[in-house]
Amino acid sequence: MSRPSNVKRPAGRNAGTNTLITAASLALTLSGWAVLAANEPEPAPPVAASVPTQTLQPQPSLAAVPTLVPEPDWASLTPPTAVPTVQSAPTAVPAPPQAAAPARPAQPPRPAAVTRSSR
Amino acid sequence: MQDITFRAMGCQMLALLDDESAAAARALADVPQWFAAWEQQLSRFRADSELSLLNRQGYLRSASPALWEVVQLALAQARFTGGLVTPTLLGALEAAGYDRSFDALTSDLVPSVASEPRSSLEQQPPLQAWAEVRCDPATRGIELHAGMRLDLGGSAKGWAADQAVHRLAAFGPALVDAGGDIAVSGPQSDGSPWPIGVADPHSPDEQLDLLLLRHGGVATSGRDYRRWRHNGTWRHHLIDPRTQQPAITDLLSATVVGPSAAECEVAAKVLLLLGSRGGLDWLEAHPVFAGLMVLEDGSVIRSSRLDAYRWRETLSEEIGHD
């Protein structure tokens, strides 16, 4: 398969050979590519070929690990009616320094009883 | 906090005990029976009550301790108010149409039939009629003036609230609400006061004030609820002894804080009968009381001493003006 001439090769890779290509005429470009292809290093033999193949068996103990968090009752859960839209995170703007926030007004206690005309 | 609610004396009742013990729970469970027993003695609406017997006979040789106490309380209140709040107005109440319990009155779909004033109305005693009730402390004997009959309604409720809270106090800090007449035994177990709302008579689900009460009581009297149509006009249960008619003033309701529920109940009635101007003067002249008055136009008048009981922050916009 031919390779487009405008493909840039990574700098530094086969640097000496690239110098030769620069010096050659355009007519030799295609053949130069052929030379380059011939100079590509041989692919390393597959590692797997030299390593004995082992088939990993599932560890029985893994399946036996209890679930720490009780599974929810999926059947009882109501599926969401709409998938929440992912909002882009707002740009964090540091808050300007402020004076101490004003104290929140105290909440009135809940009445223990209510006085009203007899009923 | 444990509580119990029930109906008695024609009103909704509430008792609270700030204690989680089983003994407190048992005491609370007894409260409805206390009120039922008192009602059996003090109700004018029950023909077989002890009070009805007194009103029929005109005397009792030896009243029960409860009836004796409440009659003495009602007479003391009449003395204290110069006869303005008196138990001797039953005839006028009946003439105004309040001749059966309020529940029965409001459930009666037939409009009140115009009737001639009862003869007793024409014979109503003056402001000092209460002095005509003769009592013998040695025997608890009670004798009424000829033709006189007693109504202990408001006095009985305030007395019952005070009595019940006194009994419950043996088990922990207590609050008893007898249809709006509220007594507390002391601060809550953590030392804090009891928060008590004051209902807005113009909007009963809203509150005008939140009062913090450590001792004593608070009571509200008003003509916003217990009223009915009689002979084509609206009547209510607060009879002015000077006119023998339901009181007509600029006040819709009055709430008073003071030493006990019974005392607050009678003070609130005094305000209703005097109106806003006279009522405020009366409140300021009696340092044991503080209170607020709600006028027909929605405005609210508070006595100077009420601030000592009000929660610090305003709950909502003031209705009217101070």
Instruction: Determine the CATH superfamily of the domain at 193-322 in chain B.
Output: ApbE-like domains
Give a short account of the largest sheet of chain B.
8 strands, antiparallel
What is the string of SSEs of chain A from the N terminus onward? HHHHE
Q: Strand portion of chain A, in percent?
A: under 5%
CATH class of the domain at 193-322 in chain B: Alpha Beta
Q: In angstroms, what is the radius of gyration of chain A? A: 37 Å
Computed over alpha carbons, the radius of gyration of chain B is 19 Å
Q: Largest interface: which pair?
A: A-B, 14 and 39 residues
Structure overview:
The complex is a heterodimer of chains A (119) and B (322). With 119 residues, chain A is mostly helical. In chain A, 24% of the residues lie in helices and 3% in strands. The longest helix of chain A is centred in the N-terminal third of the chain and has 11 residues, at 29-39. Mean pLDDT of chain A is 56; it is low at 1-5, 7-13, 47-51, 60-67 and 78-86. By secondary structure, chain B is an alpha+beta fold. Chain B has a domain at 193-322: ApbE-like domains (T-fold). Helices cover 32% and strands 26% of the residues of chain B. In chain B, β1 and β2 form a beta hairpin. The longest helix of chain B has 25 residues, at 261-285. Residues 107-125 and 314-322 of chain B have low confidence and may be disordered. Classes of the chains: A mainly alpha (119), B alpha+beta (322). The A-B interface holds A 105-106, 108-119 and B 10-12, 14, 16, 154, 157, 175, 177, 179-182, 194-199, 201, 204, 207, 210-211, 218-226, 253, 255, 311-313, 315. β1 (113-115) of chain A pairs parallel with β8 (194-200) of chain B, so a sheet runs across the interface.
